[in-house]
Amino acid sequence: MSDVQQRIDQLVKGHKVVLFMKGTAQFPMCGFSGRAIQILKACGATDITTVNVLEDEEIRQGIKDYANWPTIPQLYVNGEFVGGSDIMMEMYQTGELQPMLAA
């Protein structure tokens, strides 16, 4: 496992909810990242760790390889890859996401 993959692995496994996104929760830098934050807030998630991939090119590319998922944002809950903003929206609408994020 490369250094960047280890860093990502530690982030994913060291926090309950991790969102790799463009920008920050306060200032999302793309519509998909903004929507992902809105969905998490609508689910009542409070303990969210966000990683701004625009600040670290290694993580920006490495996260795509880590999950074998080509797009950002990427949500991880309890160390497991959930998906991007479209999957998050579907899971929110069907009620699947809320219990995953419950404390």
Description of the molecule:
Belongs to the glutaredoxin family. Monothiol subfamily. InterPro entries: Glutaredoxin (IPR002109), GRX_PICOT-like (IPR033658), Monothiol_GRX (IPR014434), Monothiol_GRX-rel (IPR004480), Thioredoxin-like_sf (IPR036249). Residues 17-82 form the Glutaredoxin domain. It holds the Pfam family Glutaredoxin. This is Glutaredoxin. By secondary structure, the protein is an alpha+beta fold. It has a single domain (3-101), classed as Glutaredoxin (3-Layer(aba) Sandwich). The chain is built from five helices and four strands; from the N terminus they run αβαβαββαα. The chain has helices at 3-14, 31-42, 57-67, 85-94, 97-101; strands at 17-21, 48-52, 74-77, 80-83. A four-stranded mixed beta sheet has the order 2-1-3-4, sandwiched between helices. A hairpin with a 2-residue loop joins strand 3 and strand 4 (80-83). Helix 1 (3-14) packs across helix 3 (57-67). The protein is globular. The N and C termini lie far apart (31 Å). The mean pLDDT is 95.
Biggest pleated-sheet summary? 4 strands, mixed
Q: Spans of 5+ residues with little confidence (pLDDT < 50)?
A: none
Structural class: alpha+beta
Q: What is the architecture at the second tier of CATH?
A: 3-Layer(aba) Sandwich
Can you tell me the overall shape? Answer: globular
Q: Into how many domains do the coordinates divide?
A: 1
| Number of DSSP-assigned strands | 4
What average pLDDT do the residues reach?
95
Strand content: 15-25%
CATH topology: Glutaredoxin
By CATH's scheme, which homologous superfamily applies? Glutaredoxin
Q: Give me the Rg, rounded.
A: 13 Å
Terminus-to-terminus distance: 31 Å
Share of helix among residues?
Answer: 40-55%
Q: How many separate helices?
A: 5
Order of helices and strands: HEHEHEEHH
Please give the order of strands in the largest beta sheet. Answer: 2-1-3-4
What is the CATH class? Alpha Beta
